[in-house]
């Protein structure tokens, strides 16, 4: 790199200066002298300057220049999302608790769309819920008598009406039902990976094989929530009504959205963190073996048992959110470790449950959800997943503990960050003999499990955290301490 001349004048700049000076000298030479009597022509003088300057590289002194401004957009954050929640005044009395569990007043943006104006019971409208809007009346439209399900058309048009609210600086529109609970921070982290200027339609299948087969394996089920990038939402806002006129016989809102987007050439981007929950009964087995992806949504809360024992449904959801508010990224994430002295395997779904198995079991086995739930609509096979059958084998049946409380550790000397302690308490007696014939390694005595996790632990793509078990014989509690996995560590 060439050094700048005194006064920060570069060689290229000097060359330009010499060329201009040469032009002036040539001008005076022509005026003052009769060039016709000399062999030296003015063009020779200019050519000399050109030849000299052509050998001098034009350089830029990077040490004295300011780098160009970065015009790339900032990373996606919560302010770039707008939520469209589909509600009904007939059910808002008890379903409003689900939206209130994740809605953040003055932080999240969006609306709950109702089929009619709120009654005086709900006025003034609570700020702990999304602000309400009333869906447009479509009864006077010419297509109305031909609609297979006017209610479903009202629901699918919520995406259009959410867009028409005209919010500024929107990158993503999230459409959900009023009985859907969302993990907003996790959703933001997922959406950061995608280019919001492209055409994206993000969601998931149903857990019910019958539902997928009857509708589509490539459809985002609406109860689990789905996400539209701004270009897709804008396109749907201008084409949805004409699509409804083409397909008045479609009786499901999410199938209508899928059909319209397919006609426009937009395909689904699957994400397993959304959960339609087309299941019935106790889904603890499913939640305790969450797929290896951030937990984003939970739907159909009213058709399943409360997810925590001895709580009603709203209490259960609020209890889950206690842990999620401390560390949403770890919510439901499954971590397994072993205690060789007792031949125990511990599996923790962070912020939800912990399980002790009286045998050394591999992670590949425990990632299959235990079939505590029932089929949504029958049929065999009933699920779009591979569950483990429930068993009375004492070596494969777990002792089950549920999340009880969360607190923070004092900051460590090395990192200065507060660790997190989650506590899990036994749900009930397992009611089975010990896996060991002698009973020496029974976990019946354990009533509490405490899990210590660091506040910050970057994970490699596709890797889980690992953990160690701390237990002394005769104790009625045990500890699990999270740590980074060692290279090529196998947890079995």
Structure description:
It is a single chain. This protein is an alpha/beta fold and 492 residues long. The chain has 2 domains: 78-276, Spore Coat Polysaccharide Biosynthesis Protein SpsA, Chain A (Alpha-Beta Complex), CATH 3.90.550.50; 328-484, Mannose-6-phosphate receptor binding domain (Cation-dependent Mannose-6-phosphate Receptor, Chain A, Distorted Sandwich). 25% of the residues lie in helices and 20% in strands. The protein has helices at 11-32, 42-54, 92-102, 150-163, 184-191, 209-214, 230-246, 253-263, 284-287, 313-326, 363-366; strands at residues 81-86, 109-114, 132-134, 172-177, 181-182, 201-203, 226-229, 268-270, 279-281, 297-298, 334-339, 344-349, 353-357, 373-375, 399-411, 418-426, 448-453, 466-470, 477-483. The strands form 4 sheets. Strands 11-12-13-15-16-17-19-18 form an 8-stranded mixed beta sheet, covered by helices on one side. It is globular and about 75 Å long. Mean pLDDT is 87; it is low at 1-11, 25-46 and 56-60. Keywords: Membrane, Transmembrane, Transmembrane helix. The chain crosses the membrane at residues 12-32.
């Amino acid at each position: 790199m060439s050094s700048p001349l005194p006064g920060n004048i570069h060689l290229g700049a000097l060359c330009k200066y010499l060329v201009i000076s040469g032009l002036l000298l040539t001008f005076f030479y022509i005026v003052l002298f009769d060039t016709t009597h000399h062999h030296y022509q003015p063009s020779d003088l200019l050519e000399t300057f050109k030849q000299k300057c052509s050998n001098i590289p034009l350089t830029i002194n990077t040490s004295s220049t300011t780098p160009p401004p970065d015009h790339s957009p900032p990373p996606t954050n919560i302010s770039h999302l707008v939520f469209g929640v589909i509600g009904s005044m007939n059910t808002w009395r008890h379903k409003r608790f689900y939206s209130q569990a994740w809605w953040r007043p003055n932080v999240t943006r969006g609306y709950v769309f109702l089929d009619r104006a709120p009654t005086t019971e709900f006025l003034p409208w609570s700020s702990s819920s999304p602000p309400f809007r009333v869906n447009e009346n479509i009864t006077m439209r010419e297509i109305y008598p031909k609609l297979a399900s006017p209610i479903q058309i009202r629901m699918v048009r919520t995406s259009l009406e959410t867009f028409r609210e005209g919010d500024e600086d929107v990158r993503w529109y999230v459409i959900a039902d009023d009985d859907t609970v969302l993990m907003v921070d996790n959703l933001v982290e997922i959406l950061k990976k995608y280019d919001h200027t492209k055409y994206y339609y993000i969601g998931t299948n149903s857990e019910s094989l019958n539902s997928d087969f009857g509708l589509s394996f490539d459809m985002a089920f609406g109860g689990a929530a789905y996400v539209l990038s701004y270009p897709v939402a804008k396109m749907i806002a201008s084409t949805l009504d004409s699509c409804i006129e083409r397909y008045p016989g479609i009786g499901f809102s999410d199938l209508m959205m899928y059909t319209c987007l397919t006609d426009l050439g937009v395909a689904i981007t699957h994400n397993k963190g959304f959960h339609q929950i087309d299941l019935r009964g106790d889904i603890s087995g499913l939640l305790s073996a969450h797929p290896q992806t951030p937990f984003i949504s939970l739907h159909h809360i009213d058709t399943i048992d409360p997810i925590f024992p001895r709580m009603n449904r709203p209490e259960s959801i609020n209890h889950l959110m206690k842990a999620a508010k401390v560390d949403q990224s770890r919510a439901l994430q499954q971590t397994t470790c072993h205690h060789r002295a007792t031949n125990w395997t511990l599996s923790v779904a962070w912020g939800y449950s912990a399980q002790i198995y009286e045998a050394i079991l591999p992670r590949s086995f425990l990632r299959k959800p235990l079939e505590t739930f029932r089929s949504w609509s029958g049929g065999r096979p009933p699920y779009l997943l591979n569950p483990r059958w429930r068993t009375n084998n004492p070596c494969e049946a777990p002792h089950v503990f549920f999340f009880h409380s969360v607190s923070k550790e004092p900051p460590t000397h090395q990192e200065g960050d507060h660790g997190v302690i989650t506590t899990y308490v036994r749900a009930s007696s397992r009611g089975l003999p010990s896996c060991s014939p002698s009973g020496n390694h029974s976990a019946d005595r354990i009533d509490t499990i405490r899990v210590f996790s660091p506040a910050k632990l970057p994970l490699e793509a596709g890797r889980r955290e690992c953990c160690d078990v701390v237990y002394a014989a005769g104790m009625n509690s045990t500890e699990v301490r999270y740590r980074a996995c060692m290279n090529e560590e196998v947890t079995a």
